[in-house]
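User: Protein folding is very new to me. Would you mind checking the protein record under this note? It all follows right here:
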Amino acid sequence: MTAAAADLGRLQALVEARLGLLVHAHQLDNLAATAAAALARFGSADVHALCAAFAAARDGDALLEFFIERLTVGESFFFRDTAQMDALRDELIPRLVEQRRHGARALRVWSAACSAGQELYSVALLITDALGGAAAARRDWRLHLVGTDINAAALRRAEAGEYTNWSLRGVDAARRERCFEAAPGGGVRLRAELRALATFRYLNLAAGGFPSIVDGLHDFDVILCRNVFVYFDPARARRILARMTQALAPDGVLLLGASDIVDPHIDGLVTVQRGAMCYYRKPLLAVELQPPVPAAPPAAFAVSNPSAAAAPPEAPTPAAAPAWADLDALAAAGRWADVAARAASAGAAPPDAAAARLLALALGNLGRQEEALACCTQALERAPTDPALHFLRALLSAERGDDAAALDAFRRTLYLAPDNIEAHHQMALLLLRTGQQARGLRSLRNALELARREPGAAPAPGGLSYARLAAIIANEMELHAQVEANG
């Protein structure tokens, strides 16, 4: 093997290790062409030096984004999979609406590997149809529609909501007229009141980081993850599917793509056949069917800003220490089911507030919101000045629809940790959702100012850079200001 071939092989291995993307034999020419373009773009002397830069790069760095854009297929269009969209329109969404109409009035949808947002916006359009329009949906329902992707450029396009006419080839003329407008640079743009229903964030599925109540990636009614698993080896695909199973609410459904070659049996889910297509459903009484997920790269679990001052930790009693000894390691690996199981096997309450906070976070990530809130409340009795616990209580209260308790907990968080960007941001979104536009925009402005104080390339909560977080918040401010102006 030549040195050049060996270097390309090393780069291939790095792409799989860092990004989780398999590069098959027939794709090696594209990898070589991408490497050559990267040499010219980033100034590395050769592929060997490029490999060193690739290995040292952080998530979100320009070099990684360069490879992601060229090694993944981002083409999509509205209402792409007719059979799945029909199932959502005719069966799944109406059933959810009927179940929730006289209760929580909340719907949660995750488009994993969302590309430029066409899939998530398609679902948003179907949901607004079922709820009587975007205004009624915002006024009367709590919608959490989130799209994630590894491609930062695609996420920026999703946030802008601007598309070519070719992307709308599955949209009828009446809907096009009702839901889209001319974009300033040509093409079309989804109207602001519809764009405001969805949020988008960076996520590398292969790296874990979900389920996560802190990042809003948990307890979903619907997860769409279409034509993604072709990029992963079978073992990695199983790990991702196990995490998605945990991120589903009881009775939630998972929709995969036609090109996704996975084991037809997914632990913890049942297969539902509907005509020529099928989907997977999480049984109502099988919340804990899924076995513990193998260890993955670190996932964020600290719910407070690193600069926030927390209460001093309590010393655990010697008898309790063995049962809770490696809780931090389990949480850092995203093994939330193991954290909950460890607590159950201990046969006693958490020995200190830190352990209680991790247990509450684990229960929240697993969709066990009432247990999580009770655990968090008990922990606050022991550590009433811990901003991380107040922030977690705010998130849990918001999830159960107790907006007043959530706002109270956000305010307590910010009293104790005024520079907590996450708390400013999440409180802003809650205020905006509850119609408090002026206060919500003010909180967004606070979050934006704090984000802009940090070095742009530094990592922010949730795996983003501060520059990217600031761009997201600025886009949200513009979008909600436009919605308010349009009435």
